Predict the structure of YbhB/YbcL family Raf kinase inhibitor-like protein.
Amino acid sequence: MGQPRKSVGAGRPGRDWRAVVVAAGLAVTSGCGIVGSNSPTDGSLGELSVSSPRFRDEAPLPADYSCAGKEGNPPLRWSGVAQKLTKSIALVVDANNAQGAAEVHWVVFNIDPLTTELAQNSVPRGAVQGMTSSGKVGYSPPCRRDDTYRFSVYALDETLDLKKGAALRETLEHIAQHTIARGRLSASHIE
């Protein structure tokens, strides 16, 4: 349980995960999936390995971490961060349902680049939380049982000059512009 795996889709030609995150966020916040011209869309990204001691990639998300539970966010671990290049880490938790609608459940940024794990129901010291699709700041537990939930970790080439509660669209755009490596752990549905 919780064995490290490479991110799903890593290395696929023509697939830029920065653009996917921004497109999902833009679709949620503005109804528009167009990525801005300042967003990098070419070049290769490094790969991070993301895991959890509570569930495996493509396995169900334990109900304790959903709106039916009381545990808050699940614990996560990541590795593969290029220490010399990375200035901060960001985490985005989002969902995608069968109809293609995206919903962002959590955004945390400016995580210290030496951090390699996130404890259950916690935010690393010094990290900043942005707004979610629901307008809440902090972890917004998922509720739709059949959606796929994605826990994406991004290595960034700078700390973001954004405040707590920053607008979702703005935060996702900044993450996309500064991503140098990424990894993902997906939960196929809620237990």
About this structure: The chain has two helices and eleven strands. Residues 17-30 form the longest helix (14 residues).
